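ok so for the tutorial part 2 we go from a plain amino acid sequence to predicted structure tokens. step 1 is just haveing the sequence, like this:
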Amino acid sequence: MADEEDLSRALNLVEILEKELVTRCTDIDLYKAYYRGEQKLRFASDEFRKYHGQRYKDFSDNWVQVVADSPVERLTVNGIKPYGDDDSDAESMRVWQANGLDADSQLGFLGAVTSARSFALVWGDPDDEETPVVTFEDASSCIVAYEPGSRRRRRAALRRWQDGDKYMAVLYLPDSVWKFERPVERRTKTEDMAEVDLLLDAWRPREMRDEPNPQPNPMGVVPVVELLNRPLLVDDPISDVSGVVAMQDAVNLLWAQLFTASDYAAFPQRVVLGAERPMIPILDKQGNVVGEKPLDLEKLAADRIAFITGENAKIAEWTAANLEAYTNVIEVAVGHIAAQTRTPQHYLIGKMANLSADALLAAETGLVKRVEEKQLWYGQALREVFALIALAQGDEDKAKALRSGYMLWADAESRSQAQLADALLKLKQIGFPFQFLAQRYGLTPAEIVDLMAMIKRENELDPLGAAARLMGQDAGPADGARQADGQAAA
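step 2 — the prediction. this is what the tokens look like for a chain of 490 residues:
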């Protein structure tokens, strides 16, 4: 068991990190709610909210989800190539696949796009020393503290979650790992309970039966890595959906007003002219009339009745609302979302003319660059994740090589098979090797290995045809045999 000074230092770190984590959760929870379509009606006037707010409380025309999903669908990890190696590291990808990260990485990337950051945790598996456990963690449950003046040297990390009626926390330090717990609910009823509340809110070391607390960290570094989305030098990273929220609220309001105007246009409107304002009797407990009060004319307006007092009252105009004006403004608002987030308009508007392939590529240039930026920032975090995997396996030299390597991503650009084949053929003609072309085609390193093995077996079965193909001739087995016979006869 650690001494009191180490425990006090660990508890202090937990309190500091938890406080910052709770502060971050306000925006994180908001962005995740908007991604799910849980969007409150905003920007409405008091009158509109009073009579129609409840009707549209569950409605949203959710563009936040499209903006967040569009780059994630193009972020696919194909492998990692260590520094100094010619081929990608197959063992790293084995661990990646064994942990289901071909799918879970998409959740991690989506979390970073939506919440501005997500986290990856690497830890050894006592039941399988060769396959460390790697998980992606949500921004609402993790936080990393860095050394002063550094954006990469991790000093500590905290992971916090709720388990039944308790909060659990794990504090990761370079040399040790602490586990704490505390009750979830506060039970303050009187001022006399304030001291009890302080005790309930305090973290305390978790009682561990089969392992020490703290336990040593064999990797020697904090095993939690932060994936930052659009980071800044001196401020927090930026969520891709943070700038969409206000325009999303405006679009929702415009739809609500359009539905309301459409609803009114679908039923007859009634006008009462020249009558006195109607009065409502006031009754006492016995049902006797003791007075009267004027009827709320705003309520009549909401019920599609216009009540105009005075015997000389006239209606000068009774023009129906122009519903097309709403749809035009909504289309402009969605276009603004597309431009501000670099999301192709055909992802949002849903209208496609007979566009050429080149026109579609130009329309998606902004999204492609957006994805490539994320490949750069997420890639440096993932290199550290793979380095942690090597450290968990006890291979420090490999960890160093992986930190200096580079990630292999699937192509961020979407092209037709004909376009891609034409481009690869031209690269082949100027001398690019086949393995490079296969990688550009989109094959993973494992698929390329299988493909090369297939080519080798094919060449062994047909060596003359292989020689002809190497010479640039299109000769099948029979053609190759005839050419060989003719050369022999000559």
